[in-house]
Each structure stands twice: as structure tokens, then as C-alpha cells.
Amino acid sequence: MLQSTSRHHDRDIGEQVSQRWLSALTTPAGVNENHSHYWGNDPSILITSSAPQDFTIGTGLDIYHSSLIGALEHAEQEVLFVTCFWARSPSLSLLSNALVSLSRKALARSDGSRIRVRLCFSSTALFQKLFHTSSLEGQAYAPSQWNSKLGLPAPEELRGLDLHIKSIFARPFSVMHPKFMVVDSQRAFFPSSNLSWERWLECSITVRGPVVSHLVEFWVHIWGRNDSRVASTTKQSFKDSTHQIPIPTSTDQVSNDFPLTATLPSLSISTVLLPSPHHSSFFLSMSPFIPFAKSLRPPLTPLNTFLLDLLGTATTSIRIVSPNLTCQAVISALQDASIRGVDVSITTNRRMMLLEQLFTAGTITEYEVWKTRRKYQRLRRQCHSAPQAEQDAELALADGGRTGTMGKMQIGYFHPRDQDKDTEPVKCHIKCTVVDEEVIVLGSGNMDRASFFTSQELGVALYGRQLVGTIWNRIQEGLSGRVEEYPV
To answer: DSSP 3-state assignment of 430?
Structure first.
């Protein structure tokens, strides 16, 4: 009975958030922003449900080794694989070996059918981005380039696969930042990790259910233009879609502490797929360096709008884990939340991708954290000393705040727990937002200006206290002993 009551409560919260979010997206500005995308006329089609399966954290190599590769090798008909950064690395070696195994499995079939595989990415190196076509048709890679340019096995080792490879990048700064994998249109994976060598702390969630078909639709919209798979499978499920693919498990550990995997309650829960299209306009790219444009609001994409609405209406707590923090709209929303009495917790990094931050935001995380602390301390002093403090507290309560006092603000910087271990993550690349312990947003989007203004991103919002609590506890376990508190 209590579980049923909790699910009804979670659904009510989801409906409230969805209605506010839909209202924003259907304003004239929202319609103008999204009109060229398949959700533009009716953003409610992004609201769906899912059955979460498991959640894993570890280094990027851990995520590939324990979760993604095993699922790929179990594919029977199709793998859609999307990442942002592609680099020669141990993770790429795992992927290459898995593709060879998958090819051999297909060749051993009596019917001679091949397994369809689509590998999609945005970036390999600075030189590649400088000379990449800006056409959203992207650049296709011929079999003769698979090994020499991408480090994949030779074409003769992959004869059992119907393999197409494509990259999309829109100059000057618009990477296609999403990372996901879909296996046989039945299971979807949302890892935070790229296919690369970085030893960063990452996470991945596996889901089944209706959200998977929504994710495939997103793939078709971005990556499936002129693709042969679209004509035969876009509007239909595979014939054996009810077949249960075994969830691969690995007892081997790439690192000593990871992977950490939590089995999730496989219940149907409210879910929202949250795309955020890229913006390649020169003005948006340069706006951090134009005085009058620094205060621009982020484009009204589904992901941007959802996150800012969550932060703006939080009543008890906000917990954020993000590689960087340079988006002014997010920072302002967090400061406003603390004034309303909402407790705010931020975990981020020092000295992570500094040049990228400067080029895309005109600032760096450490400076924004310092400014945030200074403003929080000033507001707290005003709250305690100003004659209007009691009236302001009453206004905060009337506006949905939890108490008449400012909420607590905690800021932490990630650091390795053991500098001498070559398997220890050196930075945190998890992207996670938890609000009021009732909704969690995972995916590719950082709380930085690039993610909100120029890059293409993809998030997924999941509702439910039990689910959110399980995921957050696992993240906290991975962060334990690896976060230095920044005095606020």
C-alpha cells in the first residue's frame, strides 16, 4: 500500500513538472526554438515511461568493460552506438574485439543475415574538427578508413556486420555531445563516458520500455538521414522484440574499487527524454566575450527548459554533480534556490578542460565557484542583519521555500583518493541533477555554458524516490573519500 501511494505521489510530481515544462516550450519563443525538430509541434511526445534495469559507476573503461560491451555482444539484429569523442584507447580495443565477436556470431548463422551496426561520433581531434564538414549530413567513413583513421579492425574481420560509421560536427564549437547505445530496440544505455582514454569517474544507466523507441526516433532525427536502416525499422519493432536479452554480468574489475553496480526496481516510471539541439551561430558562440550579450538566457530547448524549471521550483534540496560549472543561468538559479531555503550541493572539478571553458564560456569553474561563495556569504550576512530579514523570510516561504532561513550551500571539488593507483579516476565526468529527492536527470549535459548554448546534448529525467535514492547512494559511494569540501 505504501509503495502504491509513493508511486502515485511520484506520478503527481512528474505531471506537475511536465505541465510547467510544456507551457514554456509552447510559448512563441519555445515554438520558434524547436519548430524544426520532430517534437516542435508537440513536445509532449517526449514524455514517456521506462523500466530502469541497473546503474553503474566507475571509470570509462569500467563502464565499457562491465556494461556496454557485454550488451553489444548479445545483440541479435542491431546496435546503435553514439559517442562524442572517439580516441584510440583501451575502450576502443574492447569495442573492436566486441565487433569482431559480433561479426563471427552473424557469420555462423544459417540464414546468412548480418547484424546492423551504426557507429556515430563527433570529434577525434582538433585537426579533424577544423576541417570537418558543417553539413548535418555528416561525414561517412569508407571501409578503407576504418582501421587507418579510426583504429577499428580491418573490414574483412567485420564481414558479418552491416556497418556504417558517421561523424557530425558543426563549426565553430558545436559538438554532438550525446552518448548512448541501443541494442535491438529493446535496451538503451546512457553512459556519461566517451570512447576515449581519460581516466575519469563516469556513470551509466540501463533502461527498457517505451523510452527506447523514443531514443531510436531521436537517433533517426540526428544520425539516420539517408540511412538504409530507417526505411525498414523506423516505425516498427523487431520481430523478436519480446525476447529477453540476458543482462551481461562481469565479476572482473578493471579497477580495484569499481565498477559499482546497483540493480534498480524494474517498475514502469514516468520518464522524459530531453534533447537539446546544437546552436552554431557565431553570435551565440562569441556572446561570452560581448558585454551586452553575457546575460543572454539559454535557448529554450527541452533539456535547458526542464533543468532550469527544476532548479527554479525546488523546495527542499538540489544536488548537482557536473564536470564544470560556468552557465550563468544555472548559477543564478542555484543562488535563488538557496535564498528560498533550499539546500544546494555541488560537486565539480578543478583544472578540467580549462582552454575549452575559456573558449566557450569566457570563464572557468573555479572563478564561478569563488563568485558563488562570495555572493552566498553576502546574502547570508544580509539575511541575518537587515531589518527586512523577517519579511524576506516570509516572502521566501510564500514563494515555496522550505524555511524562513537560507538553505545550506555545499561545494566540493573532486580529487583522486589514491594518487599512486593507475586505475584511480583523476576527474569526475558524471552529469547528474537531483531535485527534492524525487526526480533525477542524467545524460550528456554539463552545467556549463557550452552544454546550454552551443553543443547538442541529450538527457533523460526519471521520477521516483526509491529509484532516485538508489542511484544517488551509489554515486555517493563512488565519491566517498574523493571530494574536498570548499569552505562556504
So the answer is: coil
Residue 427 burial (CB count, 10 A): 18
Specify whether the CB–CB gap between 308 and 196 falls below 8 A. Answer: no
Residue 162 CA to residue 139 CA, distance in Å, equals: 18
Q: Which residues contact 230 (CB under 8 A, 6 or more apart)?
A: 220, 224
Set of cell numbers at residue 406: 537560507
Whether 433 and 472 have beta carbons less than 8 Å apart is answered as no
Residues of the chain predicted below pLDDT 50: 1-2, 231, 234-243, 245-253, 389, 391, 393-403
Query: In sequence order, which residues have a C-beta less than 8 Å from that of residue 150 and are 6 or more positions away?
Result: 86, 124, 141, 165
Distance CA 85, CA 122 (A): 6
User: Beta-carbon neighbour count of residue 65 at 10 Å?
Assistant: 22
Report the chain's C-alpha Rg in angstroms: 22
56 near 203, Cβ under 8 Å? yes
pLDDT digits (tens, 9 = 90+) for 214-224: 999 999 999 99
Euclidean distance between CA atoms 53 and 305, whole angstroms = 27
- Per the structure block, which three cell numbers stand in for 262? 546497483
Tell me: the pLDDT tens digits for 286-333? 556 565 555 688 999 999 999 999 999 999 999 999 999 999 999 999
3-state secondary structure 345-401: EEEECCCCCHHHHHHHHCCCHHHHHHHHHHHHHHHHHHHHHCCCHHHHHHHHHHCCC
Decide: helix, strand or coil at residue 276: strand
Question: 82, 95 in Cβ contact below 8 A?
Answer: no
The predicted pLDDT at position 391 comes to: 46
Q: Which residues of 230-267 are buried (b: 16+ CB within 10 A; e: fewer)?
A: eeebeeeeeeeeeeeeeeeeeeeebbebbbbbbebeeb
Packing angle between helix 328-339 and helix 365-385, nearest 10 degrees? 20
What b-and-e string marks burial along 202-220, b requiring 16 or more CB atoms within 10 Å of the CB?
bbbbbbbbebbbbbbbbbb
Run of H or E including 263? strand 260-263
Contact yes or no for 22/171 (Cβ under 8 A): no
Let me know: does 300 contact 34? Beta carbons within 8 Å: yes
Distances 115 to 18, 68, 188, 202, 347 between C-alpha atoms, Å? 38, 17, 17, 29, 41
Dist. CA 430–CA 184, nearest whole Å: 26
- β-sheet bridge partners, residue 458: 275
Q: How far apart are the first and last CA of the chain?
A: 42
Pairing of strands 343-348, 409-414: parallel
